[in-house]
Design goal:
The protein is built from 15 helices and 19 strands. By secondary structure, the chain is α+β, with helices and mostly antiparallel strands. GO terms for molecular function: catalytic activity.
Length: 492
């Protein structure tokens, strides 16, 4: 598979290295990479030369460069089509998260800034056309054919989709919020207003579509006369079992925002996913702040976003928490407003453990602390797998015995205990099975039993976390204990 590499012991004594296998390695030769960045190479050189753990350094190098090395399938001066890595389609959520790790470099790498702007521009078009869809085919300008085989073959979807443009139309609130997040952070690092003017202001049209979806999905299932209200439904052979003719489980009038799929691409148990609500509060306020800082653009959108964020924040604290006997007050993973609650977590972000990473509340908040203890315990979370190979949050997307390394990355990025962080890094480093990239999931008792050799979001997230440690806990990575500093590295 293109993009994979083996990390083998070299003769010098067990250090991991890149295998020089041309365009099929994790770090292809420059002429084989799908995009080259001088700023990225500077970061790689500085980090890997300073990190004490050579194996962890090589893992970081492979993960950090993975998106640019292998997943940029087409770009021009305005648009960028980026795939997940091992699937030939662009997921809104994945591609946004694949690029977050590169945002601090934009001021020192204009081509990388242009490439990132292209991701936002293309996503704005996709969202405008199909706001309930989550993954897409190449744009016509690319000349690339629509890929086979879309997960929606044989599906019944309303609103209708077009499989020459759409790969799958699973409505995920976090996918739309990820677009808002990438836009906000892009402007923060670049101060580039062209995303607002491209395609006659298509970015604003996309944002309006997002706000419309949010308004629709905050509408309860039953109106005042008992009629069922539905704005989206999906059913088919590859969509799992969606209750009620594809409409999903009923939702009460709570002020929360419904979703149909989790970040794992599983259908929800209950329609209000609590981590999604936390992310919505942050990103709707972030949207208002972005527009204000860019010149007080669209006060109407600012006002609507702030009002919705306030409503969701109040509602999630009312409807999204549960008082438990063993753990005190905690966040549920999903609720419906009728008393139904899924008491678990999922390793994909947004998750309950990721709440501080999302920016919703500080890691010291008592409710978060209770929640973290619950979902990272063998007695509090039915999807917490443990064994000699790895321990952490698993997912019904695979099964209860396969832990997802991505969940351990979230434990690290939100962690405060140095010893625990180092333990999690060892699990991550030792479960790549020689491929040098992060798997989707790993059997807790058999390291050779894993799913997906790699996918780019997980690798970018891992690299983002290592860079955060390099800035906030440098003593865990570097012998000199000096913090990594983007400005000094990029100007060298």
């Amino acid at each position: 598979m293109p993009g994979l590499c083996g990390l083998l012991d070299d003769a010098a004594g067990g250090r991991l290295r890149r295998v020089p296998s041309g365009c099929r390695s994790c770090a292809p030769a420059p002429e084989c990479r799908t995009f080259n960045s001088t700023a990225v190479e500077k970061v790689v050189a500085n980090m890997t030369s300073r990190m004490v753990d050579a194996d962890l350094a090589r893992f970081f190098e492979n993960a950090y460069t993975n998106t640019l090395d292998t997943t940029i399938k087409w770009f021009n001066e305005n648009l960028t089509f980026v795939v997940t890595g091992d699937i030939p389609a662009e997921w809104l959520r994945d591609s946004c998260n694949q690029f977050k790790v590169y945002l601090p470099l934009l001021g020192q790498d204009q081509p990388l800034q242009d490439l990132t702007r292209g991701v936002i521009n293309l996503q704005a078009r996709y969202i405008t056309e199909f706001p309930y869809c989550n993954a897409f085919q190449p744009p016509p300008e690319s000349g690339l054919p629509a890929e086979c085989c879309s997960g929606d073959f044989g599906a019944s979807v309303s609103p209708p989709e077009n499989l020459t443009i759409v790969w799958t139309c699973g409505y995920e609130l976090d996918s739309l919020l990820s677009f808002l997040q990438l836009s906000r952070l892009y402007f923060q690092y670049s101060n580039d207003k062209s995303i607002f003017t491209f395609n006659n202001g298509g970015w604003f049209t996309a944002v309006e579509a997002i706000l419309q979806v949010i308004a629709e999905q905050a509408t309860p299932t039953y109106d005042a006369d008992g009629n069922v209200i539905s704005f989206y439904n999906i059913s088919g052979p590859n969509q799992q079992y969606m209750k009620n003719d594809g409409r999903g489980p009923p939702k009460a009038n709570t002020g929360l925002i419904g979703t149909t799929y989790r970040p794992s691409d599983d259908v929800v148990y209950f329609p209000y996913n609590v981590p999604h609500q936390a992310m919505a509060v942050v990103e709707l306020r972030g949207l208002a702040a972005l527009l204000k800082s860019a010149g007080n653009l669209r006060p109407d959108i600012q006002s609507e976003a702030l009002a919705r964020a306030s409503t969701v924040e109040t509602s999630v604290m009312k409807w999204g928490t549960v008082l438990t006997k063993d753990w005190g007050e905690v966040f549920a993973y999903e609720v419906d407003g009728y008393g139904g609650a899924a008491m678990q977590d999922d390793p994909n972000v947004p998750s309950l453990v990721s709440i501080p990473y999302l920016g919703f509340m500080n890691a010291t908040n008592p409710i978060y602390q209770n929640t973290r203890k619950m979902v990272l315990s063998t007695t509090g979370n039915p999807y917490y797998g443990f064994g000699p190979v790895i321990r952490g949050v698993s997912s019904p997307h695979i099964d209860e015995k396969h832990v997802w390394p991505m969940g351990l990355v979230t434990e690290v990025v939100t962690g405060t205990d140095d010893a625990d962080i180092l333990v999690k890094l060892e699990y991550l480093k030792n479960t790549t099975t020689g491929l040098g990239l992060m798997h989707e999931s790993v059997n807790t008792h058999n390291v050779e039993d894993y799913t997906r050799p790699w996918f780019a979001w997980a690798n970018s997230y891992f690299a983002e976390t290592i860079l955060q440690l390099a800035q906030t806990k440098p003593h865990l990575l570097f012998a000199d204990g000096k913090a990594f500093d983007y400005a000094s590295v990029l100007q060298s």
